[in-house]
Amino acid sequence: xxxxxxxxxxxxxxxxxxxxxxxxxxxxxxxxxxxxxxxxxxxxxxxxxxxxxxxxxxxxxxxxxxxxxxxxxxxxxxxxxxxxxxxxxxxxxxxxxxxxxxxxxxxxxxxxx
Amino acid sequence: xxxxxxxxxxxxxxxxxxxxxxxxxxxxxxxxxxxxxxxxxxxxxxxxxxxxxxxxxxxxxxxxxxxxxxxxxxxxxxxxxxxxxxxxxxxxxxxxxxxxxxxxxxxxxxxxxxxxxxxxx
Lengths: 113, 121
Fold this sequence. Notes:
The structure holds two protein chains of two kinds.
Chain A: E1 3-5, E2 10-14, E3 19-21, E4 24-26, E5 32-39, E6 46-52, E7 59-61, E8 64-69, E9 74-79, E10 88-96, E11 101-103, E12 107-112
Parallel strand pairs in A: 2-12
Antiparallel strand pairs in A: 1-4, 3-9, 5-6, 5-10, 7-8, 8-9, 10-11, 10-12
Chain B: E1 4-7, E2 10-13, E3 19-25, E4 30-38, E5 44-51, E6 57-58, E7 67-73, E8 76-81, E9 90-98, E10 111-112, E11 116-120
Parallel strand pairs in B: 2-11
Antiparallel strand pairs in B: 1-3, 3-8, 4-5, 4-9, 5-6, 7-8, 9-10, 9-11
């Protein structure tokens, strides 16, 4: 069965600092998908990125970037120049070919002004 | 595209009553719908998976007689919490997977509803 580990329960930074959220996964499938979601206090999940197992290219979207390393089974997420609006819980998730999605425990990010 | 709605967004009920939550895919037909539960400060836990016209598949530890899932059409799934108790108070989130090629580049992905916050007094 697949498993996602987000070892950082809570992170607190000061605005404009860079912050990296770690995600380590386990799966026996060769084809799988990795995701990051943001969950603000309202509760609604906000999709950030999806990456399939055959695409190890790192991605940058504005202040967000993702580092996918199959060799270490990691899919880390970095926010550059953090802002107060980035404060939320961030979930990493893994979906295998049967569409069964498993979430990590989440990392609560607090960005202080 | 690929919008999923849930109704109601919040519900408060008395212990012992039943509550129905609706999950709709607004602009696509869904092959599969999923129901998750999230307790405060916890992660999302999959409760069950349902396909239109067939019985839902429940995760281990989820009582199928307590959490009734009906997937009546390709755009609607309902979760009924029967005889609700305070320990059922939680945030319930549904998701739906579209038929392939409906959402270019995002096949096999789950699109999430905004969630329903249930409080049982």
